[in-house]
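Hi support team,

I'm filing this because I wasn't sure whether my run with nicotinamide-adenine-dinucleotide finished correctly. The job status page said complete, but I'd like someone to confirm that the output block is well-formed before I use it downstream. Pasting the exact inputs I used:
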Amino acid sequence: MSAKLIDGKAFADGLIKRVGVAVSKLNNRYNFKPGLAVVLVGENPASEVYVKNKILQTEKSGMVSIEHRLPETTSEKELLALVKSLNEDDKIDGILVQLPLPKHINENAVINSISPSKDVDGFSIPNVGLLSTSGEGLIPCTPLGCLLLLQDHLGDLTGKNAVIIGRSNIVGKPMAQLLIKANCTVTITHSKTKNLEGECKKADILVAAIGSPLFVKKEWVKNGAVVLDVGINRLPPEGDKKGRLVGDVDFENVIEIASAITPVPGGVGPMTIACLLRNTVTASCKRRNINEPEM
Ligand code: NAD
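And here is everything the job wrote out:
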């Protein structure tokens, strides 16, 4: 069998268009444009690329985009003061502080200083709590993107065995909560899991979020499983071959056994930005107590 490619780029492009339509409806009906503030501290090259992309897409979808670039030497106190002013700014509906932050700043303190109603990354404790109690909070963008791709591909997920590799607060844990909510039987595996291959082999849905290139092997994947590859790893150049981006899944071999798989790049990555825009529209409507247009 050769797997069907799950085209996250195409799905994300469609979602961004629908977000754009929702933004213009809100502007026509209520005379406002949702606003997203992105804060970048320091000069991490990967973060620079992510932030540039987020700003570009925010503007393309007709929203207001505000960018704050702060030097590496910014103190935690200064960053907390900026977040406070954004919390109080009525034009701002979403606040995204790009991670990782420089080592001298406590990430949790900053994340939890963002007003939960503007926390479009969904990482603050109230939103994590709402997700795990099936409430209506803001949902972390990458797992939300994975869920949308899975539902688009498989429809109802009820009763599926889902196995997640990775237990981070950003991907693994919220992914598990979303799949439990979608009636899957969920296993979270991690670096201390004893029989990782055996656990993966049980998966109808396998989500890899490890940060280790080509880690998941064909032999670990059940025939016909749907595989989502969250990993983004840059391989160094080899001989005359250029350095390239790869996921956490040994794509070239796993594609022979899976029924569907996301490529890297062009799979889960574009969904993260699309869901950030969607979350910003959601946040803007909730804050104003108005119905969210369909997206
Ligand atoms: P993380 O480092 O916080 O977590 C990695 C997880 O992998 C940990 O829970 C760890 O227990 C597990 N792990 C590590 N080694 C393992 C092993 N040998 N066996 C089993 N599990 C192991 O990383 P993260 O933030 O969750 O990100 C994971 C990957 O996803 C990274 O490559 C990251 O760049 C990528 N990512 C992509 C997007 C996107 O938009 N596509 C968003 C976030 C993260």
